[in-house]
Design goal:
82% helix; 0% strand; mainly alpha
Amino acid sequence: MDSNPTQDLINNTVSALNDGGVTSIVPTDGPLLIDYWIDVLAEAPQSQQLRISLQELRSQLESGNPDAVTVRTIMLDMSDQLSVVAQNSQPDIRDQLRPLAEAVHVFAISL
């Protein structure tokens, strides 16, 4: 069975958000994970706002002193944006995006 790179990225992101905790994902993995997502979303026209949010999040993380309130706000917005994209997607994509939106939301409120 062939591996789906997007599904793998979703699974890895959900796992990192749920299992990695704030200390392991934000300082070390955050910018790299964000870059992967920006690349994946580049071909999806309905994801422009998500790409903008990801770029804002990356800027915060790379600043050396990210503002927790700003990061939380960006991530909560991203969770909402993912939920909207999921609602407007085919069932198979919807089923992939819902856990991601939830993981982003839970992670954001833990900040």
